[in-house]
Amino acid sequence: MNVNKKYMPTYHAHVSSGWSNDPNGLLYFNGKYHMFFQHYPHKAKWGIMHWGHFISDDLIKWEEAPVALVPDQEYERQCGCCSGTAIERDGKLYLMYTAAQMDLQRQCIAYSEDGIHFSKLDNPLIDARNLNTSDISPKDFRDPKVFKKDDTYYCIAGTRMMSEEDLQNYIDFVSNQNENKEITIDDVASTNFYAHGYGNLVLLKSDDFNNWEYVGPLLTKQENIQEAFYRLNGVYECPDYFEVDGQELLLASPQNLLQIGYRFQNLHSCVYIPGHLDFTTGDFHPEYIEEIDSGFDFYAPQCMKMTDGRYVMIAWKEMWDRTYPTESDNWIGTYTLPRELSYKDGQLIQTPIRELENYRQNEVVAKGMILNGELRLEGVEGNKIELEVDMEITTASRAGIKLFKHGDHEVFIYYDQKEQLFVFDRSCSGIEIGGREIDTNIRKMPWENKRIQLRMFLDVSSLEIFIDGGKKTMTGNIYGDPIKDTGVEFFSEDGECIIHSVKKYDIVVEA
């Protein structure tokens, strides 16, 4: 394949050719960090899934290793080796993944002694039809997240909740295939069931990693959680579970979650849920549900615990059912910067991994400016940079920053004081990105504080924004002119704003 690299980022992980999506199996093994990912190496389109493989010393500079899993078994050949997780056990690296056929999804295991070459066990290992429960739809049972607590292994997976075997063939909202069949009132008079197989998560456990038993569903209806989360027309994909700063967190990527106000504006979403998991029943008792990232391109985040105890998260920096401008360049798929996670004052905090600071060069600093109009600062430019801005909106109706600016191209990042909204507008950035959402190029987020601290990372075709120390984040891809679109301009409309400070660094990661 001839690959055009003009939109490839320089300090974000990305596939070298073909298609990639969900990150899988983040872990530290044999002195290296490993990130596996969903991959179709033969074309820049989703196809029969393989497991791609990145290796790194610091989670910033990545090397693409040989493909880890190839769908070469009969039970994998229809859809491939789909998402899953990685865990170290007895000095070996184990991968649990979903072997997907059109109407059947089962969990499998492969292992490696060197972290590069993998052998598959006598798979499939977990089949929903053999778990002594009718809760799980065998055709939607995927994305296992495996972890060990005390002496027991646990697995959280996404599914559609059913009630009994003869009610498992209803409309599939993902494939839109109508598979209804007739039933009578007598068939269901004493049965509680979800007619369309609403999305949920389930918990399994094992003492030996080989024999698994069903524990129960995680998401049972709670009065403090909105109905939309229990009537999901899809699957809670790519779950994760861990504890940080004394708080248990459940992460998931719900398909087709309905928009609520300015939240969940993308076709599919990513949420974090603080709460408590009952390992006896499987019940997860949520405190609330919140969106992880309020931008355009963020899906299927996965987390890992680093050797020093920090938790970091990486997500696929794309979104399903969009147009992909790099398809004609023969590659699709980038990943967010690793984000350090903490939990403070009842809120998830995300900050860029500190190792990124090792790649800073050419610092430019400016302080103490009152702006009414437009302003460019000498040396503050580029599209492979880190930009820190501390600004305060006083009398202006709108104030902010124009990034990736040249000619008619610009990306607007601003605060609308009248509407009390923080806005990320990429509609004038270059190539317009289409999708199934109402608007794929403007994202708005409620914000009341007139003083805003921003930390932004521009990387050729990528923009990640960390707001107020990581209390909120917004992520999006930008496809303009990567050679010319390097301008940075501050603006204030109908009044003044104060720019307390600006710092710019070039981020330089040598190939």
Concise summary:
By secondary structure, the protein is mainly β. It is 1% helix and 48% strand.
Detailed description of the structure:
It catalyses: Hydrolysis of terminal non-reducing beta-D-fructofuranoside residues in beta-D-fructofuranosides. InterPro entries: ConA-like_dom_sf, GH32_Enzymes, Glyco_hydro_32, Glyco_hydro_32_C, Glyco_hydro_32_N, Glyco_hydro_beta-prop_sf, Suc6P_hydrolase. This protein is mostly beta strands and 511 residues long. It has one helix spanning 185-188, and strands at residues 18-29, 32-40, 50-56, 62-64, 80-89, 92-101, 104-112, 119-120, 136-149, 152-161, 199-206, 213-217, 236-244, 247-254, 271-277, 284-286, 290-291, 299-305, 311-316, 331-332, 339-344, 347-352, 360-371, 374-375, 384-393, 398-406, 409-416, 421-425, 442-446, 451-459, 462-467, 472-477, 487-493, 497-507. The longest helix is centred in the middle third of the chain and has 4 residues, at 185-188. Residues 163-196 have low confidence and may be disordered.
What is the fold's blueprint, element by element?
Blueprint: E1 18-29, E2 32-40, E3 50-56, E4 62-64, E5 80-89, E6 92-101, E7 104-112, E8 119-120, E9 136-149, E10 152-161, H1 185-188, E11 199-206, E12 213-217, E13 236-244, E14 247-254, E15 271-277, E16 284-286, E17 290-291, E18 299-305, E19 311-316, E20 331-332, E21 339-344, E22 347-352, E23 360-371, E24 374-375, E25 384-393, E26 398-406, E27 409-416, E28 421-425, E29 442-446, E30 451-459, E31 462-467, E32 472-477, E33 487-493, E34 497-507
Parallel strand pairs: 1-20
Antiparallel strand pairs: 1-2, 2-3, 3-4, 5-6, 6-7, 7-8, 9-10, 10-11, 11-12, 13-14, 14-15, 15-16, 15-17, 18-19, 19-21, 21-22, 23-34, 24-33, 25-30, 25-34, 26-27, 26-33, 27-28, 28-29, 30-31, 31-32
